């Protein structure tokens, strides 16, 4: 079919300039007639910040990521961005060959070189290749790492003798790093940090979590070994530990647990074995969780009597280590509401919802009021930075002073 | 699932956007494809002037702080039966002509005063 296309002529353009009461002398000689293309390509507009732009132009990996039921995100190698559709009531016309007919600074026309063209109006046709009422915007966000833990939770490693059983259980699937990178909405760097944060361990190329009780058994054996050899807590030989325990647990696992709870001293003993120091806060925190876990799993939600807990806890840690309630931040809370003897209750940060608003609602349903110190460790993980903690608290909670301490409670009128 | 975004080898850096208020509608209600929209001029001071129908619009050139990438969805057959999708950045738009003032009507058929 032949399309009858309108042809814009220079005379028409000049005539309209007259009708519009524009002085031709005030206009640059380049005029452009806008046409809409015969058909549109499947284009999307995406607003880039300078960081994404640099990443793209350096040829680094930038991807949209998400399963069907997930909101898509954009990931660079290092960062994750939320994708928002910005709608506008204006209309955006995409014009590939638009000419910016700027006059040069001295007032003469830019394309005046040929002399005879100078001052004479000429007309080009330019084509609109897309019409948009929205574009995509990005906003930096925390990676959605909760899914990482959920995926790995089905196949927790419980020791070689239980491996068959674990792998046969429903929902258990083993994931390589590449599998996880495709499934989890996080950048490559954030995924590695996430794996480290949840203390995942690579066993035969697949990433696994260690079952808590299993990990506890390994750590207890390391503790026993330290005790029986009277090693100072800051001079524990790595290879000797691994060698001694490898009959009880696979070598990879011992090494993994060993590194979880120690930090290198960059010194060697006489045998040339690298020395490590037990990390006090990590060990104490882990052993506190070991004490509180059995109670949390029982039906009645009573906590551990604070005084009894503190004694048992101090007793459970290696000699020379000092327990401190600060080590419980984000793991357990002390309930000292009036009229009761203070109780310790397990409340792991990762058991709370990932969304800030839902998370605060749940925190306030557990307890009506929180001091800043108490609530902070539960908000930090969902905040982009330190300032964001305050912003989230201001948005979702009401603050007041009590006994000289800043406290937070639920906002009035917020239901559920 | 992850869909890569790649920069086109022949990335265009001079594409522009013309932003107008409201919508573009055809007078005869027909499709907009292949239609003539209007005339664009620049004043000698660099002010863009757009004439659409009987409306005269003055605008300004805006440099976009964050450029808009023009993404083109590309489905390419891969080794397996599935097609692989990728987005190609065809162009980066760094400038737009923004027409946000109220259009001035053009009255062309006035009889000339005698």
Fold topology:
The complex is a heterodimer of chains A (416) and B (114).
Chain A: H1 10-19, E1 30-36, E2 43-47, H2 50-57, E3 63-65, E4 73-75, E5 80-95, E6 122-128, E7 130-141, H3 146-153, H4 163-168, H5 177-183, H6 188-197, E8 201-203, E9 206-208, H7 212-229, E10 236-237, H8 238-245, H9 251-260, E11 262-268, E12 274-278, H10 280-297, E13 304-305, H11 306-316, E14 332-335, E15 343-346, H12 356-366, E16 369-371, H13 372-379, H14 386-396, E17 397-402, E18 405-410
Parallel strand pairs in A: 1-6
Antiparallel strand pairs in A: 3-4, 4-5, 5-7, 8-9, 10-12, 11-12, 13-15, 14-15, 16-18, 17-18
Helix pairs in contact in A: 7-9, 8-9, 10-11
Chain B: E1 2-12, E2 16-20, E3 36-42, E4 48-52, E5 55-58, E6 60-77, E7 83-99, E8 104-105
Parallel strand pairs in B: 1-7, 2-7
Antiparallel strand pairs in B: 3-4, 4-5, 5-8, 6-7
Describe the structure in your own words:
Chain B: This is Chromosome transmission fidelity protein 8. Chain B: It is found in: Nucleus. Chain B: One of its GO terms (biological process) is mitotic sister chromatid cohesion. The complex is a heterodimer of chains A (416) and B (114). Chain A has helices at 10-19, 50-57, 146-153, 163-168, 177-183, 188-197, 212-229, 238-245, 251-260, 280-297, 306-316, 356-366, 372-379, 386-396; strands at residues 30-36, 43-47, 63-65, 73-75, 80-95, 122-128, 130-141, 201-203, 206-208, 236-237, 262-268, 274-278, 304-305, 332-335, 343-346, 369-371, 397-402, 405-410. With 416 residues, chain A is of the alpha+beta class. Chain A has 5 domains: 10-103 and 116-139, no CATH class; 145-208, no CATH class; 218-278, no CATH class; 280-331; 352-415, Arc Repressor Mutant, subunit A. In chain A, β3 and β4 (73-75) form a beta hairpin. In chain A, α7 crosses α9, α8 (238-245) crosses α9 and α10 (280-297) packs across α11. The radius of gyration of chain A is 32 Å and the shape is elongated. Chain A starts with 9 loop residues before the first helix and ends in a 6-residue tail after the last strand. In chain A, 28% of the residues are buried. Chain B is an all-beta fold and 114 residues long. Chain B has a domain at 2-64 and 95-104. In chain B, 0% of the residues lie in helices and 61% in strands. Chain B is built from no helices and 8 strands. In chain B, a hairpin with a 5-residue loop joins β3 (36-42) and β4. Chains A and B meet through α1, β1, β2, α2 and β3 of A and β1, β2, β3, β6 and β7 of B. β2 of chain A pairs antiparallel with β6 (60-77) of chain B.
């Amino acid at each position: 079919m032949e399309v009858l296309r309108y042809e814009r002529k220079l005379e028409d353009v000049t005539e309209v300039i007259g009708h519009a009461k524009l002085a031709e002398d005030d206009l640059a000689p380049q005029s452009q007639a806008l046409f809409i293309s015969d058909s549109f390509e499947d284009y999307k507009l995406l607003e880039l910040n300078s960081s994404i732009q640099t990443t793209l132009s350096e040829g680094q990996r930038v991807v949209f990521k998400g399963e069907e039921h997930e909101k898509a995100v954009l990931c660079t190698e290092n960062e994750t961005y939320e994708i928002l559709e910005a709608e506008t009531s204006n209309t955006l016309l995409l014009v590939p060959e638009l000419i910016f007919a700027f006059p040069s600074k001295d007032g003469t026309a830019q394309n005046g070189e040929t002399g005879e063209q100078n001052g004479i109006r000429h007309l080009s046709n330019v084509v609109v290749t897309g019409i948009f009422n929205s574009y995509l915007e990005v906003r930096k966000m925390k990676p959605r790492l909760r899914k990482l833990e959920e995926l790995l939770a089905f196949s927790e490693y419980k020791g070689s003798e239980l491996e068959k059983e674990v792998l046969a259980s429903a929902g258990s699937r083993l994931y390589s790093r590449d599998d996880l990178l495709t499934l989890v909405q996080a950048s490559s760097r954030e995924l590695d940090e996430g794996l480290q944060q949840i203390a995942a361990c690579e066993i035969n190329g697949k990433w696994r979590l260690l079952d808590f009780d299993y990990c506890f058994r390994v750590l207890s054996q390391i503790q026993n070994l330290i005790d029986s050899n009277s090693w100072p807590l800051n001079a524990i030989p790595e290879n000797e530990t691994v060698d001694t325990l490898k009959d009880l647990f696979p070598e990879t696992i011992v090494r993994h647990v060993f590194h979880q709870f120690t930090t290198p001293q960059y010194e060697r003993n006489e045998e040339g074995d690298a020395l490590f120091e037990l990390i006090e806060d990590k060990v104490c925190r882990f052993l506190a969780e070991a004490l509180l876990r059995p109670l949390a799993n029982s039906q009645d939600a009573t906590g551990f009597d604070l005084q009894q807990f503190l004694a048992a806890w101090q007793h459970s840690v290696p000699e020379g280590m000092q327990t401190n309630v600060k080590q419980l931040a984000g793991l357990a809370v002390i309930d000292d509401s009036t009229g009761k003897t203070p109780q310790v209750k397990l409340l792991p940060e990762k058991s709370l919802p990932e969304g800030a608003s839902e998370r605060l609602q749940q925190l306030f349903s557990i307890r009506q009021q929180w001091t800043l110190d108490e609530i902070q460790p539960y908000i930090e993980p969902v905040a982009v930075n330190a300032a964001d903690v305050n912003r989230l608290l201001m948005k979702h909670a009401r603050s007041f002073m009590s006994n000289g301490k800043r406290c937070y409670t639920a906002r009035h009128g917020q239901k559920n | 699932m992850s869909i890569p975004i790649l920069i086109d080898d022949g990335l265009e850096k001079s594409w522009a956007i013309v932003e107008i208020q409201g919508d573009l509608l055809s007078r005869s209600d027909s499709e907009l494809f292949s239609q003539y929209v209007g005339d664009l001029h620049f004043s000698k001071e660099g002010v863009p002037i757009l004439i659409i129908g009987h409306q005269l619009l003055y605008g300004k050139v805006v440099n976009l702080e964050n450029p808009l990438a023009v993404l083109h969805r590309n489905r390419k057959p891969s080794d397996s039966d599935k097609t692989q999708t990728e987005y190609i950045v065809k162009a980066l738009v760094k400038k737009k002509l923004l027409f946000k003032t109220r259009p001035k009507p053009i009255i062309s058929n006035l009889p000339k005063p005698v």
